[in-house]
Design a protein that fits this description.
Elements lengths: L16 E3 L9 E5 L1 H7 L6 H7 L12 E3 L2 E4 L2 E4 L5 E8 L5 E7 L16 H16 L6 E13 L3 E11 L5 H10 L2 H15 L9 H23 L1 E2 L21 E2 L23 H15 L1 H4 L3 H12 L2 H16 L7 H16 L4 H9 L6 H4 L4 H10 L4 H7 L7 H11 L5 H10 L10 H4 L4 H6 L7
Antiparallel strand pairs: 1-3, 2-8, 4-5, 6-7, 7-9, 8-9, 10-11
Helix pairs in contact: 3-16, 4-5, 4-7, 6-7, 6-10, 11-14, 16-17
C-alpha cells in the first residue's frame, strides 16, 4: 500500500486512545473500491490482494500501530462513556495536496471501548454507509468518505446472521464534541488543554496566533456546523442520531447508521427506530445542534477563564450569537432554493408561504423544488393544490434566479426505498442497480431527466412503515 503515514494523534496523552490491532478476517474479499477517492488520496494499490489484506485486518501494522479513540457523549440527552467500539484508526495519511486525513477501519473487531459488543459490522450496514456518504459528497455537503468495503468471511449476529464486512473511512478528523466531554469529565485539565492545542494545530492553524483562541475556535466551529446542518436541511437529510459524539469539530457529517432523506415535507419527519420522541426530527436539527454546541462550550470553561463566573459570562455571550447566525444561514440557503440571492422581507414571506404549501398538502420536498426549478418538469400533485397558482404568480413577480436554483436544488436524492432495493440486491452479489443508483447520486444537480424509477417517492405504505437502524 502507498499510504503516506504521518500520525500525530498518538502524540496526545495516552488517555485519549488505546493501541489495538484489528481482528484478522478469515476470508477477506474486496466488494467495492472508490476509484475517484483513491486518486484524490494518491492511494493507488499496485497489488489489490495486498490491499485487501491490509484493509481487512490482515496486514503488517508494525510501523504504524492502529488505535481506537476514547470519547464520551450525550446520547439522546444522557451522558455516558463511549469510545471507538468497532472502529480502528490505521493512522493519518497525507494526500498529494498536503491534506491530513484519518484512515479508519469500521467493523474491524473489538477494542478497549467495545463495552461487550463484538466490534464487527454487517455487509449491509457498511454498503449503506458507503452509498449515503458518497451521495452526500455528491450533494456538496461536508462528509466522511468511503474508500472501500471488504467482506471479512465472518458472520455477524444482529437480529439474524449477516455477512460481516469492514469499511475504510476517511475524514479530516474524528475529534468530536464527545472527545472534549471525555477530556473534561474523565481526565485532567492538562489533558483538556492538550486536546485543545492539538485541535487548534491540526484543524484550525490560522487561529494559533489569536489573542483569544478558545473563543475563536468555538465561534469558527459553530459557524461551520451551522453551515453543514443548514445544507442537510436544504436537501432533506435527517441525521437520525445527532448525539454529541456524532458532532465533529471539523464540521464533517459522519455516522450514517439511522439517517434517511425526507420525501413528503414535514418538519416532524423521523425515521430512526430509536428516536421515539422525535428528538432528532428534521425540523429539530438546528435546536439539537445548539444543544450539542452548548455541551461542548461547557467543556471549554476551564480554558476560557480561571474565574468560573467570568468563564460562564464569556460562554453565554458566545452562545447567544447562535440564533442570529443560524437564522442568517438558514435564510440564505432556503431563499437560494427559490432563486433569491439576498435576504429581503418579501422573499422571506414568499419562502414561508411555499413551505406552508408543501406541508399542508403533504407534497414531495425534492420534486416540488425540481418542478419550479425546471419548469418543463411537471409535478401534478403540486400544480393541482389550492393556492398554488396564486403563490406561483407572486413568486415569478419577484424575478427568481433560475441558475441559482439549479445549483441549490438537487434533482435526485437517495430515496429510502431505492436505497433498500439496491442493498437487498447488493448483499446477494447483484450490484447492477446499486451501480446505477450510485452513479446518478454522484451528479445530483445535473440529471434533470433522471430515470423516474430512481426519483419517484415511495408509496404511502412504505413511507409510514419505514424505519432506519444504527446497524451496530
Amino acid at each position: 500500500m502507498n499510504f503516506q503515514w504521518n500520525t500525530s494523534y498518538l502524540k496526545l496523552p495516552s488517555v485519549f486512545y488505546a493501541l489495538q490491532l484489528p481482528t484478522p478476517s478469515p476470508q477477506p474479499e474486496g466488494v467495492l473500491w472508490n476509484e475517484a477517492l483513491s486518486h484524490e488520496l494518491g492511494v493507488i494499490p499496485e497489488d489489490k490482494r495486498a490491499c485487501v489484506q491490509f484493509l481487512s485486518g490482515n496486514g503488517d501494522y508494525t510501523h504504524n500501530p492502529p488505535f481506537a479513540q476514547a470519547y464520551a457523549g450525550h446520547q439522546f440527552g444522557h451522558f455516558t462513556m463511549l469510545g471507538d467500539g468497532r472502529a480502528l484508526h490505521l493512522g493519518e495519511h497525507i494526500s498529494p495536496q498536503g491534506e491530513r486525513l484519518d484512515i479508519q477501519l469500521k467493523g474491524a473487531g473489538k477494542t478497549a471501548y467495545s463495552r461487550g459488543g463484538d466490534g464487527r459490522a454487517t455487509l449491509r450496514s457498511m454498503l449503506r454507509e458507503y452509498l449515503i456518504s458518497e451521495a452526500m459528497h455528491g450533494l456538496g455537503i461536508a462528509t466522511s468518505r468511503s474508500l472501500c468495503v471488504i467482506k471479512t468471511g465472518n458472520e455477524v449476529l444482529r437480529e439474524k446472521m449477516h455477512e460481516g464486512a469492514v469499511l475504510t473511512r476517511t475524514m479530516k478528523s474524528h475529534i468530536r464534541v464527545g472527545t472534549f466531554e471525555y477530556a473534561r469529565y474523565f481526565c485532567e485539565t492538562s489533558d483538556l488543554e492538550a486536546l485543545f492545542q492539538y485541535t487548534l494545530n491540526r484543524l484550525y492553524p490560522s487561529l494559533k496566533s489569536s489573542s483569544s483562541p478558545v473563543e475563536d475556535l468555538f465561534m469558527e466551529v459553530m459557524r461551520i456546523q451551522i453551515e453543514t446542518v443548514s445544507h442537510w436541511m436544504r436537501v432533506g437529510f435527517i441525521h437520525g442520531v445527532m448525539n454529541t459524539d456524532n458532532t465533529s469539530i471539523s464540521g464533517e457529517t459522519f455516522d450514517y447508521g439511522p439517517c434517511a432523506f425526507m420525501n413528503t415535507y414535514h418538519p416532524h419527519t423521523v425515521f430512526s427506530s430509536i428516536d421515539r420522541h422525535e428528538r432528532y426530527a428534521f425540523g429539530k436539527q438546528p435546536d439539537i445542534l445548539k444543544w450539542n454546541l452548548t455541551r461542548w462550550l461547557e467543556t471549554l470553561l476551564p480554558l476560557l477563564h480561571s474565574d468560573e463566573e467570568k468563564a460562564v459570562q464569556k460562554a453565554q455571550h458566545m452562545l447567544s450569537q447562535f440564533d442570529a447566525l443560524w437564522e442568517k444561514q438558514y435564510r440564505k440557503v432556503f431563499l437560494a432554493k427559490l432563486g433569491f440571492e439576498s435576504i429581503e422581507p418579501e422573499y422571506i414571506v414568499c419562502a414561508d408561504a411555499w413551505l406552508n404549501l408543501l406541508e399542508s398538502n403533504a407534497l414531495d420536498y425534492t420534486l416540488s423544488y425540481k418542478h419550479i426549478t425546471y419548469e418543463t418538469e411537471a409535478y401534478d400533485k403540486l400544480t393541482a393544490v389550492k393556492g398554488w397558482s396564486a403563490w406561483y404568480m407572486q413568486w415569478r413577480k419577484l424575478s427568481p434566479d433560475f441558475s441559482l436554483m439549479q445549483r441549490s436544488n438537487p434533482t435526485l436524492i437517495p430515496r429510502n426505498h431505492r436505497v433498500e432495493e439496491a442493498l437487498d440486491a447488493a448483499v446477494h452479489g447483484d450490484f447492477s442497480f446499486w451501480d446505477q443508483l450510485l452513479e446518478a447520486l454522484q451528479h445530483p444537480y445535473q440529471n434533470v431527466h433522471i430515470s423516474a424509477k430512481l426519483n419517484l417517492p415511495p408509496d404511502l405504505d412504505f413511507e409510514q412503515g419505514y424505519q432506519t437502524f444504527c446497524g451496530t
